[in-house]
Amino acid sequence: MPSTDVFTTITLQHYLVLSAALFMIGLTGVLLRRNVIVIMMCIELMLNAVNLSFIAFSKFSGRIDGQIMVFFVLTIAAAEAAVGLALIVCIFKRFREVNIRFFEHLKG
Amino acid sequence: MLLSTIVFLPVVFALVIALWPRENSLRHLALGFSLIEFILSLKIFQQFDPSSSSLQLVEKHMWIERFGIQYFFGIDGISLWLVILTTFLTPIIILASWNSIDKRVKGFHAALFLLQTAMLGTFLAFDAIFFYVFWELSLIPMYFMVGIWGGTRRIYATVKFFIFTMVGSVLMLIAMIYMMYLTQEALGTMSASLLDFYRLKIPFVGGTLLSLQSLLFFAFALAFAIKVPIFPLHTWLPDAHVEAPTPGSVILAGVMLKMGTYCFLRWIIPLFPEAAEYWAWLFLLLGVIGIVYGALVAMVQPDVKKLVAYSSVSHMGYIIIGLFVFNSYGITGGLYQMLNHGISTGALFILIGMIYERTHSREIARYGGLASVLPIFTIFFFIVTMSSIAVPLTNGFIGEFLILMGVFEKNPWFAAVAVTGVILGAAYMLWMFMRVFFGPKGELVSDEHHPLHDLNAREIGVMIPLVVMIFWMGIFPNQFLDWSKASVDHLVKNRSSYNLTIKASGSHDPQALPEEAAQ
Amino acid sequence: MNHSLLMAILLLSPFVGFLINGLRWRKNGPNLAGGIATVAIFISFICSVLLFVDLVSMPQEARRIAVTFFEWIAVDRLKIGAGFVVDPISAIMILVITGVGTLIHLFSVSYMHHDKGVAKYFAYLNLFVFNMLILVLGDSLVTMFVGWEGVGLCSYLLIGFWFTDREKAAAGMKAFITNRIGDAAFLLGMFVLFMTFGTLNLHELNELAPTVAEGSWLGAATLGTLLLFIGATGKSAQIPLYVWLPDAMAGPTPVSALIHAATMVTAGVYMIVRLNAMFIAAPNTMMVIAVIGAATAVFAATIGMTQWDIKKVLAYSTVSQLGYMFLAAGVGAFGAAMFHLMTHAFFKALMFLGSGSVIHAMHEEQDIRKMGALKKYMPITHFTFFLGWLAIIGMPPFAGFFSKDLILEKAFASPLGHPLLWAAGVLGAVMTAFYMTRLMALTFWGKSRVPKEVHPHESPWLMTIPLIVLGFLSVVGGWIGIPHVISAILPGHPANILGDWLAPMLKVPLSDAHHHLDAATEWTLMGISVVLAAISAAVAYQFYVRSPETPDKIAKALGPVYQLVSKKYLIDELYFGAVINPLIRLSKNLWHHVDVNFIDKITYVLGDLVRGGGSLVRTLQTGNMQLYAMYVGLGLVAILSFVLMR
């Protein structure tokens, strides 16, 4: 029964929809939130959404590559978080402010 | 190896000067270098065969094989004298700027030698891309020369100069690349050699601007016309001249403007014979307008240097009309006038620089009666003025006479208008001369606190070679013309299917080897 | 002696003089500089005489010594050598130039003695003679043009010799630029001839000249000669380019004598005579020349009658006399033109030097209203000036009589002539007699109006000797061209030496309807002009010596006409108002409105367009990172949808 299957069997689509939803939430956060720390967290969310789809693809196709990619992403995410937070600390020290609206100095 | 040495030796000089530890002996060093370069360039006469119209002393190596771009130097009767002019003027410029350049001396001389390489390369390169490198390279030292050592509005002037010339060059580059593709179609492999370009038969349709040959013609012509400059593209010139330091003005007027006219002779006329013929009226018209317009505007300039700058517009107009009548008189005269203008206008700028060093003003109205205070200066200025207004027995006359004769043969009406330049030339030069040198003493001349000193030995030494050349070229023009006769005749006779052969190097065998088509 | 060596010395001697004085212009004193310069010219004179003697010894048809030193310009068909020719025409010229030149140099030694720039002066003078010799000896129009411009240059330098005076410097400039207008036409004339005949060699041009008179105005010979003649109007001060010559009197007086009376200004006439075969082939040109010549002769004479400056009177007289030479050339009487050129060189040089002597004695005063009765102070100057006066007003047997009479006769009788031309010539002669007598009377005769503080004195011998020699030549100079009717009644029937000498070189008018005047007509013509001139001179004597108040009354009675004439017909003002000032205004407008406000504006507009486009795109660059991210996202969507929906 396909109509009940939706709730009983978890297919690739379920994972992908979840991943897309998480990604959109993250993206919305990145585009709309003003606080740099929140933006950082939203970026993490987007990365994890991607991770989720990697793993899902890996599981359903039976290949290991996707899971390996996830490790890369996790590592890079960690590095990114470290550098990003360090930058935020610097910015906060200098401007006493982490609201992104105040950083529009690269105007053309 | 001679030509490579001549072209690239100045780069070595520039490096040595840039790295030279001591500031005080720098000028002597630079003067010595430039003299070495001049003597080296005279060696060309030893190896050059004036009876041959082929390309001589050729050095040719593949540079970028994929596009057929070559390291390609050669010389013929058309470029010969321009090379000598360049190497002749450089020591004079160094000597003339002995005192006037007092900041960043090292940088100045390095830039000067770099510029010399660029100019020599432009005259000697026979590969389109190779040529383009030198052509553009010449802008950079000049840009700095005006921008660093120039007058008060130097930044405006140097940017204007740079942008004007750059605009034309870009179109030229596109045209060159297009022609490289044409060689691929015609010869099988791509080639940027000018000699291969000469072989192309580029389709031409009269009556429209949109035929291929006309488009390429104008792409090139625009670049060269800005450099010359031809009316109405001349407005960068007065600004650049006024703001440039003396040596910059001398190089600009003496050699860089000739790069434009030389390229008309080297590129436009042989490469696009039908288009050149078809559009000749336009260039004759613009040239004639330039002659009259330049002279008229020169007449009312309050600044001596600007006056001479506008006189250049007028003189360059003569050269252009000379080239665009395609007969021996016009082209020989045009070629000769390039040298004349280099020498006499260069000398005028040097003289103006000398007086500017003394009074720090170039305003004609503030002078007057200079002749009784600076007699030697006056004599030199007078001789150069005579050369500039083409009095017989000075070099200017030969060029102007031949050009007017050539134009008359082609179209008497243009000659009749151009000949008014003879009158107006005398008018603006002599009027300026009268206001500066004659009459009662002006405020700058009679200033008790700053008595003016006549030329010193160095300055006389600067002027002597120029004055000697003025008379030598005026009295024995044949000694100069004989070297370019074969090349000019070859161009005039075979203009519609021009072809340059390469003379076997080292041998004085008159049998020229035809260049093999790139396979 | 070797001809080319002789020719080289002839040419180079003045040049060497120029170099010596020119390079030592600060050191050479008046005697040394003058000595060098005079000797230099004298050497040339000796060479000229030697060449002349050689020429005489040759058979009549072969009288031609040609030397080419080197090839000057050789391009395509154009082959111009540094070639020089002595033939009967140029032989006369070099004798006059170097002979009169030597005398004037000698005169200058004393005249310029106190001038600081004396070495410079002599250097210029020698350079002038060098160029003048190139002009007359050159074997082609181009070599002639070298001298032609060269003498103009020296004239410029010498007119503006006292350059601290702005007006004198301006006079020099005016001379050069006016001459340049002529020179431009000369260039075009050369081109016309070269394109048609393929050569610029004078000899060859004369050989190639059409043998049938050219009817069209646009024929090569007509157009070419007409343009050359415009060149001649510049150099020889004819209407409409004569305006520079009166101003040229700003130069030292000996310069006026040498350059602006005896030699340079006659170059135009000489050029026409040189190229006579070509000019004869163009009757239209000849007509123009004759009319312009006659008009100038009369026009300048009227102005001469009203001038008060001794040199200005002589200057207008020179313009007028040059008009006679052109009148002669225009009616095909080339021999007469050369004859008058020569006699005029003698008597006008004499009168200029005489006026120099007067000015010297009067301490630089040139206004004849402040002179008078100088006869008793300066007997030699007066006497020689008197001889010159008789010569110029054409009293027999003085030099001017023979040459002027020949011109008038030809103007009447030549196939190219016309009685009206003759009448103009006679009218000019009458006026010449008037103003010259006026000049004599106001300067030397009548009551003294000399200011008290001035003490006139006779000039030193260095100045009077040239006057005496020239005075002698003004008397006998005409005897080499005695017309047939007169020699017929003279004992021994002297031959017309000059006429015979020049005859092989000159073409006669092509028309075969040659009027032969009978002796009676010839006598009548001669009588009319002489008698009228004598009456005119007597009237002038009456006016200016007997009753000095009459001229003023007449001037008043004439009212505006007199004003107009005495202001030189306002021609200078006309040229300034109609040509020069508008040209300068035009140039200023071109500069401000075309260069600065149009061409540069266009480039600015192009620049502004680029800048405007830039600032338009610039608004996208807000600096807001989130907006950038949005662009990236939107871009991604756009690309994806394009790719997927294709």
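The first strand of chain C starts at residue 65 and ends at 75.
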